[in-house]
Amino acid sequence: MVGRFRWAAMFPDEVWEHVFSFLTSDGDRNAAALVCRNWNRIERRSRKRVFVGNCYSVAPTVAVRLFPEVRAAVIKGKPHFADFNLVPSDWGGGAEAWVEAMAEGWPNLEELRFKRMVVSDDCLDLIARSFKNFKVLSLVSCDGFSTSGLAAIAANCRHLRELNLRESEVEETCLNWISHFPEPFTSLVALDIACLEGEVNASILERLISRCSNIMTLRLNHSVPLERLVGLLQRAPQLMDLGTGKFSARHNPQLFSRLESAIVGCKNLRSLSGFWEPGLTYLPAVYSICEGLTSLNLNYATVQNPELVKIISRCKNLRRLLVMDLIEDSGLVAVASSCKLLQELRVFPSDPYDAAEPVSLTEHGLVAVSAGCPMLHSVLYFCRQMTNAALLTVAKNRPNLTCFRLCIIEPHTRDYVTQEPLDTGFSAIVESCKDLRRLSLSGLLTDLVFKSIGASANYLEMLSIAFAGDGDMGLHYILSGCKNLRKLEIRDCPFGDKPLLQNASKLETMRSLWMSSCSVTLGACRQLARAMPRLNVEVINESGRGPLAAQPDNCPVEKLYIYRTIAGPRTDTPQCVWTV
Amino acid sequence: MSPPLEHDCNVLTERICSATAAGDGILNLKETELRLGLPGSESPVRDDKVGLTLELLPPKSFFTGAKRGFADALDAGAGKWGLAAGGGGSEKEMSKGGALFSPKREGASGGKTTVLGSAAKDEGTKAAGRDSNISVGNSDEIQREIAPAAKAQVVGWPPIRSYRKNTMATNPPKNKEMDGKHGFGCLYVKVSMDGAPYLRKVDLITYSDYKELSLSLDKMFSGFTIGHCSSQEIPMRDGLSESRLLDLLNGSEYVLTYEDKDGDWMLVGDVPWKMFIDSCRRLRIMKGSDAIGLAPRAMEKCKNRN
């Protein structure tokens, strides 16, 4: 720092630390850290929150040493396509190395959030014993642990505020793990156990909820019956976020009125989810609080259009709606007229494999919502047919889209009216929606759409491609454009070696690239790995052909995962994964 | 789970006897009907109707012990479409067949053979990607050749979280008639093997019988020297003599078991396939010695069910 700012250079470190404490976003702190060496040192030594998008991009011990004052960490593991079983289950993403390093170097850690990682009971045990002030444990889409590990957390984390197990796979080895929260424990604010498959002792849960007067989020699993839900709601009328258990019972008018008044009593309820096995008799019990809801998740509620519409049309303040395609086009028209504040819509398929009784959800529903909901910016939509015209209309109606994920269930589906590919439709989306951050493509697509995306999608960060494109040019357009691309995942596309090799340096600007069932050869991977030492080029071949090191250059690669890293090749690859 | 020790070891070996007596060397996993016959009675070897894929593979014991290259299987039956054109080894490959479609329904095989048969001629190293090249270029033809009634199931497509799939599979939409078909089209169960350091997962819906399942599991765990019952005549059509097999296996025996909805561990193969996939929650390849005593329990359960 020179010239006019010499006075600033004389500030002691503590002043800058204090200044930096007002930078809330990671991006801003990253930017500050690049200004000069001093700022770099001060910023990193005072950083309290760290986000590691790929657990293998940096060695845990290094991360812990560089940022000694961290209180909150977010670590993500497996590639996104692991959600769809495309990644071998032994691929990696184990949390041990991280937890061990953190236990050593971050004794004051308060918040730990893992996503798509394999977390063992030993890890949970270590977490429970190592951090005296531990407050938040969030395990999203994780697996590898059991309720015994949770029992350790419950028993030892005296100040725990949040325990979130969203969509994780949990072994049920310890039946009454909730009883391990000791009697004096009262700090719980959020509990999400919706993913648990087994029985949860409702009485123990009730006692826990009773003494945790600050509980705001409670998401139950399907085993909690309606009768017990009433008791829980009566003990926690301050709830803001509720995930019900099973939402049906035998017809019982008394139960209904008790349920209804318990729900009415929760005056702060803003978010509703759960609704496992919903029974028509009891759904009306939620009508009274619909007006206050900002988030409604009915994506497991297998009820038909009329019932869905009755609930949703009462939700005038809804910002976020997750629903199954049972809502049909007519239901979405109702959404478009009732939910004027809607920002996010996700429509899931009720029967994605068997089109024997197709549901009447088409492009019309999507268009209706795009027209009626001016604040809509995030869409996930599963359907069976689409037209370019519909996509053009959506693009015109909603230039404020930031996330557009369209999944037409049958691969290579054409515009059913014109029989053309859907290039023009998706091109219109990227050209009109200048702030688009996330895009998922589907339907029949040629290289033309990639040309548009490469040229127009300047803020695109994540792109998912499946069964699309004509050849290498498609991938080349993407890699040579899309300035802000971070994550690219591709499956079953005719993309080969050339675009990868031509755009090798682009890969270092991205977090990761996944390609499966494409036309990449081992030789290209070898070349890439040689040219780019700061990339890990992982080849996954599950057909057991023998060691990949011995295979010739023209050996086709089944699955490829490339990510930038400063940690070098990882040491925990299973047999089917080879770092080239 | 500790099997009652008083049960005779012979019960287990007798079961396996009857299996191998059926002549295919497999732990009779492909038997799909409960018989009222005495243990040890022969049951005729049946052709798999959906055998468009399996016929090409030389019948082998459930656990071969020898790491059989996928390419061998291809050489045996390059004309058949089935498994020939896909990458092997993953839990999906048995039913995945080519890059895109799984041979789940009758009528699907004929058309597919011609289209992708040429693709199958290559070594098993063919990338599935190239198949999709073919299909992208000729998607219409392929769609037409493949029987339109057949519902093709692609691995990991549509992109629905397996968590969601499993949840929906256990809470099916009420308005659909189940009729023995799984409304949500998949059923993932974990497969563990004693001694193996990792778990795998398989989607039971993608198999149509025990044989497909066993072959797939064999591929998945073939990295380990796993054995087969050592005491029977094992008609090995692939040239491995019994003694050689025993050498390889170090005398170890493994059997495939499953945990059913009631939490009991049963031997795989006792019940009709449909009943099995309805009740199977997880699979475990366990040492034969641990599995003693499962057989009588399994038979009893079946009797109770009937």
What does this structure look like?
- The complex is a heterodimer of chains A (580) and B (306).
- Chain A is an alpha/beta fold and 580 residues long.
- Chain A has a 21-stranded mixed beta sheet, with helices on one face. In chain A, strands 5-7 form a two-stranded parallel ribbon.
- Chain B is α+β, with helices and mostly antiparallel strands and 306 residues long.
- Helices cover 33% and strands 9% of the residues of chain B.
- Chain B has eleven helices and five strands; from the N terminus they run H-H-H-H-H-H-H-E-E-H-H-E-E-H-E-H.
- In chain B, a hairpin with a 4-residue loop joins strand 3 (254-260) and strand 4 (265-267).
- The longest helix of chain B has 13 residues, at 9-21.
- At the A-B interface, loops of A face helix 5, helix 7 and strand 2 of B.
Break the fold down into its secondary structure elements and pairings.
The complex is a heterodimer of chains A (580) and B (306).
Chain A lengths: L5 H4 L3 H8 L5 H8 L3 H10 L2 E4 L7 H7 L5 E5 L19 H10 L5 E5 L5 H10 L5 E5 L4 E2 H10 L5 E3 L5 E2 L18 E3 L9 H10 L5 E3 L6 H10 L5 E3 L9 H12 L6 E3 L21 E3 L7 H8 L7 E5 L3 H11 L5 E5 L14 H10 L5 E6 L4 H10 L5 E6 L14 H10 L5 E3 L6 H10 L5 E5 L5 H9 L6 E5 L5 H6 L1 H4 L4 E5 L5 H10 L3 E6 L18 E6 L12 E3 L1
Helix pairs in contact in A: 2-4, 3-4, 5-6, 6-7, 7-8, 9-10, 10-11, 12-13, 13-14, 14-15, 15-16, 16-17, 17-18
Chain B lengths: L8 H13 L48 H7 L16 H4 L11 H13 L7 H10 L1 H7 L16 H9 L17 E6 L6 E4 L6 H11 L21 H8 L4 E7 L4 E3 L5 H7 E8 L6 H12 L1
Helix pairs in contact in B: 5-6
Biggest pleated sheet of chain B: 5 strands, mixed
Question: N-to-C SSE series of chain B?
Answer: HHHHHHHEEHHEEHEH
- End-to-end distance of chain A: 43 Å
- For the secondary structure, the number of strands of chain B is 5
SS elements, strand count of chain A: 23
Strand content of chain A: 15-25%
The amount of helix of chain A comes to 25-40%
Structural class of chain A: alpha/beta
Parts with pLDDT < 50 across at least 5 consecutive residues of chain B: 1-37, 40-151, 174-183, 225-252
Spatial strand order of the main sheet of chain B: 2-1-5-3-4
